[in-house]
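We store sequence, tokenised fold; for instance:
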Amino acid sequence: MPVENNNWVKIAEDISEIYFGANNIAEREVGGKKICLGKLNDMVFAFASVCPHAGGFLAEGCINASGHIVCPVHSYKFNIRTGYNVSGEGYYLKHWPVAIRADGVFVDMGK
């Protein structure tokens, strides 16, 4: 059960508890909502689990070498930092700040 502190929700005691597959994406349930966590270099990002374009499950996609979240359905790419799709159609992928601290890994679900 996640521990809540204001809008920050604890999702793990340590980053090593989160398994990022070969695609660098993990899925977690936070407050009854499925979200994805993406790892790019040593940074972790949280974003919606469903693509806003065609409803693809982003946990089945990947993070490419350019740092884009790639949807498995139509290969739509989203900037991992901003959530905007990179080809300019105007799709926006909801995302949340992540904090990795000594007392755990937290996602700010209030943003």
